[in-house]
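Hello,

Our lab assistant flagged a job as stuck in the queue for most of the afternoon. It eventually completed. Since we weren't sure the result was trustworthy after the delay, we are filing this so someone can double-check. Below is the sequence as submitted and the structure that was eventually returned. Let us know if re-running is recommended.
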Amino acid sequence: MRTQVAIIGAGPAGLLLGGLLEKEGIDTVILERRSQDYVLGRIRAGVLEQGSVGLLDKAGVGARMHAEGLVHDGVEFCFDGDKHRFDFRKLIGRTVMVYGQTEVTRDLMHARELSGAKTIYEADNVSLHGFDGDHPTVRYVKDGIEQEIVCDYIAGCDGYHGVSRASVPADALQTFERIYPFGWLGILVDRPPVSDELIYAHHARGFALCSMRSPTRSRYYVQVPANEAVEAWPDDRFWDELRRRVDPETAGNLSTGPSIEKSIAPLRSFVAEPLRFGRLFLAGDAAHIVPPTGAKGLNLALNDVGCLADALGEFYGEKSEAGVNHYSERVLKRVWKAERFSWWMTSILHTFPDTDPFGRRMQRAEFDYLVGSEIGARSLAENYTGLPL
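-- returned structure --
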C-alpha cells in the first residue's frame, strides 16, 4: 500500500490530523491496534480550548459540537469551603467548550467514514522502519496476513504506550517526568450537574472536582492515594467524601445516583524531546502527558496535529520543509507552558503527603492572591482557555 502520510493511532489526535490533511488533498492511512468500539468506549476529558474548537471547525466536524456542547464563561475555585468564580469572558473575552472526548472522536470517525479515507482497526504487530531515510515503511498484521505501507512521513499519535515513541533509538530521545503520589477517582453518573460550570476544590482531605459531560450526565472526582483500589470505593463512600471536600452549598445541591463508570487515573507530567526523528513525528500522548487538573491533555494533542498539518501542507503545497523542520521546536514551546500550568494547578489544589502547615498556608495564599488580583485572575483565564496556537 502507498500513501503520503501514515498515521499511527485512531484517537482524536490521529483522526484530526487525517481530517486536516484530507482538506489539503493529502492522502493518509490510519492504523489502530484496537477495535473501533474500544476506541469509542474510552472515557476521557471534556474541556476544549477556543483554539481546539477552531481546529475541529477547520476539519469540518464542528456542527454537533456547537449544537450539543456547553459553552462555559468561567470556573469556580473552592478552598476549604470558600468559593470564588473566575469569569473568563469578563476577564479576557474568551470561553471554553465542554464536549466529551468520546464525542470528538465519534464526530471525526464519522467524517472519515463519509469521506472514504482508509482507517485500519485491529492492526497487530505494528512496526516502523526506515524513518531515518527517505522511504519509511510501516508493517502490520491484519487477519493473520503481514502487510506494508510505504509512505513519505509517519505521524505517531498512538499514545504514551504506543509503538511510535518506542521505535525511536534511546540515545536520540530525552524524557522528563514527574510522578505524583495520588490519583483521581472518577465516577460518571446520569444526573444533572451540580453547577453550570466546573468546581475545583482544595480541602485538607484532598482535591475534588465537579464537572459534567452534558446537561443530564455528570463527572465527579476525588483525590485518592496512588495505590488505591477502585473496589474500596462503593458509591455511598464516594458521595460522602465528595460532600466533605466541597462547599456546603454545593454539597447540599448534589444530585447523586448509581455510577455508570468508575475508575482511578494516575497523575504524571511527562515530556519527550525532540518530537521529530527524520520522517517520524510524535504528537499527543506519545509526546507528552499532563495531569488532568488544567484540562490540557486533549487540547495539547489537537494543537500538536494542527501544527503538524500546517507543516505537511506547506511541504506538499509549497515544496518547503520549513514547517517540518521547525515542528518540534514550535510545539514544545507551547507544551512546556501547558506543563507549567498543569503542574501549578496540581500543586495548589491537591494535598501532598509531605505538605506541612507552611505548605498549606502557601496554597491558601495562592488562592487568596488569585481572588484578590485581577492580573492573577487574568493569567489563570489566559492559560485555562488556551495560549495562542
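-- support follow-up --
The delay was a queue issue, not a problem with the job. The result is valid. The chain is about 40% helix and 30% strand. The chain has two domains: 5-72+96-177+268-346, 180-267+351-385.
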